[in-house]
């Protein structure tokens, strides 16, 4: 199974031409499974329980969206986003990068691994796909391929169509829940046969609204609708992020590298933001207090300050409870946490600086 699919991103000895080449990524396979499963549920169950006019409209909408998403997703996966000069070359085993010979993979516009001249400074060498990608945006695990200039439009179309599918699914589930609770007669005959609790009742005058079948029907609509809504929220966040970076004129890779705040500015920024300290967890606050308690006890020329009935620990608590000390330590702790997370993100995307142009690094 590990030869077919891979949980971790592995380096290929040869450059990847498309996202369907082995080994596949587990996230890619899970995405296909979710796509096929939700498609079957939508066409076999969800569309059939709608009333006549809504059934026809929802079926047409789903057909258009599923076909559009399939085409855009396959297009984004199958298009090779690598440099044009690289696509003209045969697929050979890429040599291992030796830092004793070169400081970076790409130097002065030339890639030492692909053995080509890059077309722009936005070209990066992806070590996972083992190729130079024209206007590199990011490596997508769901596509099992890089996203660059050639397939960026198809990638955005895939995200938008998947978002519309999630919105359509959750909307139909919400409409069916409302109809079930208010006027179930508007549902299709197939749905009424499922939720009809009176067909097995001996007394015809007794109107039973809830039974095992009707409760299971309502539970299915709630679970399926909430699942579609959760997927839609994640896709909406991704789409809004790409709209935002498009307005900034940067790629995902560049945004990650440039989004760090200098450590010297971070404490002052946190002091000006009262919400930052309010969102601290209890554990973080305890850590900051314990760090403060390690300070040296206050002494005078006459010795330890235990005179006048006041112990050293009491004065120390009084000192540590001052607002200035508490705010400073909390701000410093938040600064350390945020900087560590930003450093982790940089290490993931920079990939040991194998994709950076020296010109960009100097700038």
Automatic annotation (TrEMBL):
Annotated region described as Disordered, given as residue ranges: 291-327
Domain of life: Eukaryota
A Pfam family of this chain: DHHC
Protease in keyword set: no
Topological type in the membrane: Multi-pass membrane protein
Transmembrane annotation, as ranges: 29-48, 152-181, 215-239
Alphabetized UniProt keyword annotations: Acyltransferase, Membrane, Transferase, Transmembrane, Transmembrane helix
Cellular location(s): Membrane
Record remark on domains: The DHHC domain is required for palmitoyltransferase activity.
Family to which the UniProt record says this protein belongs: Belongs to the DHHC palmitoyltransferase family.
Protein name as annotated: Palmitoyltransferase
Species, as recorded: Loxostege sticticalis (Beet webworm moth)
Organism classification: Eukaryota, Metazoa, Ecdysozoa, Arthropoda, Hexapoda
